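Supplementary Note 2. Why include the ligand at all?

Several targets in our set were suspected to adopt different conformations when bound, so apo predictions alone were not considered sufficient. For every target with a known small-molecule partner we therefore ran a joint prediction. The input for magnesium ion is given below.
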Amino acid sequence: MLTANEIRSRFLCYFKERNHTLVPSSPLIPHNDPTLLFINAGMNQFKDVFLGREKRDYVRASSAQKCVRAGGKHNDLENVGRTARHHTFFEMLGNFSFGDYFKEDAIRYAWEFLTVEMELPVSKLWITVFQDDDEAFAIWRDQIGLPEERVIRMDEKDNFWSMGDTGPCGPCSEIHIDQGESMSCGPDCGIGSCDCDRYLELWNLVFMQFDRSADGVLTPLPKPSIDTGMGLERIAAVVQGVQSNYDCDLLRGIIAYIEKLAGKKYGDDEEQDVSMRVIADHSRATAFLIADGVLPSNEGRGYVLRRIMRRAARHAKMLGFDEPVLYRSTVFVLESMAEAYPEMAQRTDYVAKVVKNEEERFIQTLDNGLRILTDEVARLQQEKQTVLPGEIAFRLYDTFGFPLDLTADIVAGESITIDEAGFDSAMEEQRRKAREHWKGSGEEAVAGIYRQLVEDGLRSEFNGYDNLTANSEIV
Ligand code: ATP
Ligand code: MG
Ligand code: MG
Ligand code: MG
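The joint prediction is reproduced in token form.
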């Protein structure tokens, strides 16, 4: 059986043999791209090459790229632990053509890698193409030889990619594998018609073909390009014959480590399993984000990291851990990934310190916060209400360090939502009071510069939440 490390190597070798230059993963913090929260695809580091702003001495590249999808345009945070295929941190295998080969070769390479190198059964593979992309449809049918009914035309929402509102864009074609009826969500289950785990999306081939102008007109690019991405954990799970990413060797080892620490068995209880998956996933994201230079904080990228860590801490609590444990699972992650990421593994001491410090601080308030929340949920249920008042959510945030999404996640299990407008106005009220306090404190004599500093500190403290509500990208 191939390990994930072997699959990663086989992928890179395969493309190297086909004249691709192997390019190392870039760090998770985007370099020079304030529009992006974290690197979330293999193509990110090549953006300027695709745009023609930067020249490289190669026209074909391949990489295994560290990615995080926990905010901004791609946010899989809520999916973690619940679907079999989503992570916050994952590796994306990709091959790229910068004005060199196009659809025919991209399709043939991907197909041959999956069916010959990885020996996936042809009978289980399904293809989607963009509805107007007759060219791609014909390649799959005539050159690859697939029956027409296995190539499905999809609309713009699913099979058309764009870099932004303007600029490079184009149709894509995705390769899925049918995982069988046991993974199906019901009789209507099909590619595109539902979001369950039966038809697992493996590989996305993007055909960068047009330049979109501000008025929406598509002009063919003189030199079309290729950008592809396949999740390593997904292909590893499929090759290893398991139906969940969490059962492939990359994740299973971490879960086994958590099982051992918790003295509990994965597979015994569904809620417990969710917690183990969340901790495994979030430990990977936490370890890699911190090793790449992000620190937990109250704003921006650091606040996304903090939210991930606090979610993990709450699940650790649910599994029965009363002492910090994530500083151990994150070290385990880095050590077990040392073969592929030796430079990350050198930062274990630093990562352990940062994680432990954050965990210790949060554990102190987690219990008290949870107690308040439990009482509040009981009260709401008694009164047959389904909305948690905004000021309670704000008190949990302000006094107990509960990010709003953590509170939402906890009460969602009881079918309760949060009055977010109430939360926002409680936050605003708090800010107003802070300003009043300054005015009335008789300390106007304090040097202006000092006061400004403190005010900035306060502001950045509270802006953290504003800056990163569910789907906003940092700008
Ligand atoms: P999905 O529909 O399953 O959410 P996607 O269409 O959002 O996936 P793409 O943006 O096309 O994913 O990314 C390319 C590939 O990266 C996917 O085909 C998949 O193999 C992998 N991938 C995407 N998101 C994740 C994730 N959260 N965890 C693990 N692998 C992922
Ligand atoms: Mg997605
Ligand atoms: Mg998809
Ligand atoms: Mg996709």
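Residues 443-447, 457-475 have pLDDT under 50 and may be disordered. The pocket of magnesium ion (ligand 2) is lined by residues 74 (CB under 6 Å). Comparable summaries for the other entries are listed in the accompanying table.
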